[in-house]
Amino acid sequence: MPPMTAGQAVVEALRAEGVKYVFGVVGGTFLEVLDALYDQPDIKFVSVRHEQGAAFMADGLARTSGTPGVCLVTSGPGATNLVTGIYAAYVGHSPVIAISGAASREVVYRDAFQEMNHVAMFAPITKQALTVNKAERIPELFRLAFRTAMSGKKGPVFIDIPRDVLATTSVEVDSWPPRRYRIHHRPPGDPERVKEAAAWVKKARRPLIIAGGGINHSDATEEVVELAERLSAPIVTSYGRNDAVPNQHSLYVGPLGRAGAPEAGELCRKADLILAAGTRLSHFTTFYDNRYLSSDVPIVHIEIDEKEIGRNYPVAVGVQGDAKAVLRGLLDLLRSEATAGSDPTWVREAQELRAKRRGRLDAEAALDGTPLKPRRIYAEMRRVIPSDTIMVLDAGACPAYGYDRLEFRNPRTFITPLDLGGLGFAFPEGLGAKLGRPESPVIAIHGDGGFLFNVQELETAVRERIPIVTVVMNNNEWGSEKAYQQALFGGRLVGADITNPRFDKLAELFGANGFYVDRAEDVGDVLQSALKSELPSIIEIPVDPKELPAPVILDSQRNAR
Question: The whole model's pTM is what?
Answer without folding.
Answer: 0.95
